[in-house]
Amino acid sequence: MKMLSTSECMLNARRAGTAIPSFNIPYLPMMDGIVAALRETDNFGLIAVARLEWVKFGAESLRAIYEEYQRVKDERFTRLHLDHVPVIDEDNLRVDYEAVIREAIQLGYQSVMVDGSRLPLAENIQATGKIAHMAHAAGIPVEGELGAVFGHEAGPLPPYEELFSSGKGFTAPEDAKRFLDETKVDWLSVAVGNVHGAISGVMAHRKKAEARLNLEHLERIYRDVRIPLVLHGGSGIQKECIRGAIRRGITKINIGTAIRQPYEAACKESPMAAKEAVFNATLRVLTEELELQGTRQLINPEGGGFRG
Predict the structure, then answer these.
(1) Which end of the chain has fewer CB atoms at under 10 Å, N or C?
(2) Residue-range definition of the domain harbouring residue 247
(3) How far is CA 27 from CA 49, 154, 225, 274, 296, in A?
(4) 197 vs 256: CA distance, rounded Å
């Protein structure tokens, strides 16, 4: 039976008016519980790793994540995604992003993301377009980012209300259209009030600010680009905003803080407790925060890739 590509799954989700959660894996033992929770709720989701998760946490490497995914995957419910590979990272250092993404494609990652959002628009377009050309030649869909989804930078964020009311870093609709036309990306990560969970120092363990989204701004972006949009920093966003965002083009929602912090806290007790904490936290995100149930039947109806 043919296995649907990640791109086909994303388009199915968009047509069905639902979303695909993408769970970031900063520690390898988390993956098992996430796959189990997706299976338990009959939901489809992505298993994702960003560069910072093997540089600053315990994901080890691109290959280690890939090998762990091969061990626990259930392709009725999952695909493997390479999340943020920045051109300039959160410490303002240049990254050999092409080499990282090329390695991921060669290993067998099923979609990739290049993050040129810290670059001027023209440079972001150039870097993202180069990756899109390379990945598309291998049949792999590409996610780009336009605008500034804050939170990964060193040091504390400005007050959330200040960020939201000023619209600082928001994706400009007119730039989004140009970005899509010139890069040919498959999905676009946008900034409309969402923020990442902090990753450094004491801030990494603090409760994330409850965010909301400027839905009118999001609607203007989607009207101009009409491709699946991506919401980074999806943990802790108000439910009504999530529902409204899905109606306005958001098709992939990244989840990190909501599953990472329970894992880290439970690790002090035992490895088994930590795995259970991830499973329970993922169930809570799927059923309570995102209110998803049975999306696999809409997104991956052919169910290719059965185990056993």
Answers:
(1) C
(2) 6-294
(3) 10, 21, 35, 11, 25
(4) 7
CATH for 37: 3.20.20.70
- 175 counts as catalytic: no
| pTM confidence score | 0.90
Residue 112: pLDDT over 60:
yes
- The CA–CA distances, whole Å, from 185 to 88, 132, 133, 221 equal 19, 6, 9, 15
Higher pLDDT, 2 or 276: 276
CA-nearest of 68, 100, 223, 90 to 148 is: 90
Give the rounded percent of residues in the chain with a pLDDT score beyond 90. Answer: 78
Do 164 and 152 form a contact (C-beta atoms < 8 A)?
no
51, part of any domain: yes
Say which residues have a Cβ less than 8 Å from residue 16's Cβ, sequence separation at least 6. 295, 298, 299
Give the type of residue at 184.
Answer: K
Residue 305 lies in a domain: no
Phi and psi at residue 150, to the nearest 5°? -75, 165
The phi and psi torsions of 249 (rounded to 5 degrees) equal 110, -15
Judged on CB neighbours under 10 Å (0-12, 13-18, 19+), 199 is buried
> Active site residue: 32, 42, 83, 186, which one?
83
Q: Say if 233 falls within a structural domain.
A: yes
**Structural element, H or E, at residue 251:** strand 250-255
pLDDT of residue 200: 46
Is residue 302 situated within a structural domain?
Answer: no
- Concatenate the DSSP letters of all residues of 85-109 into one string: EESB-TTS-B--HHHHHHHHHHHT-
- Which pLDDT score, from 0 to 100, does residue 235 have? 77
